[in-house]
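[Meeting: bench + compute handoff]

Bench side (C.D.) handed over the final construct sequence. Compute side (W.E.) agreed to return the predicted structure before the next meeting so the bench team could plan truncations. Sequence as handed over:
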Amino acid sequence: MALTNRYKSAPGAGTLAALILVLVFGSPWYVDWAANNTDPKTAGGWFLRLLAWPTWRFNSNDSVQDVFAADLKAILVVALTALFLYLLPGSQLARARGTLSQFFAGWASYIFAGAFAALITALIKANPSLVGAFQAAGDGAEYGLFTGWIIGIATLGGWRGRP
């Protein structure tokens, strides 16, 4: 039996795409690879390094607060993406599935999730500051802006609520 869009919810598909992005590109292995094998002065290298933004790790030479904040940031990006996908009404108001409103709602969800996850976790780090939290939120929004289109594509054609 073929799986059709009838069985795919927009929030579920977007959350799954966010989880895969964070698990794969935020992993210590990918982060090390991107740092050692890409040139940040090229567009491709910059983008490959940007994909590693919600880094999670098992151990580090950083303080426990910083490691916890980094891991929490990765978790919050996924959780807040799911929350914003349920809250943004663009795809709920669309007359037909697969419209641009679903795409932009998914993209916006990831921008908001990245910004809020960074803002929240910046206040947990060792020696937090308000300006540091604002700068971290800007970094999170930048990450969401340049990678959120993936979430937007994942949400296309999904249903909102019960089929």
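W.E. noted at the follow-up: Confidence is low (pLDDT under 50) at residues 1-5. C.D. will use this when planning the next construct.
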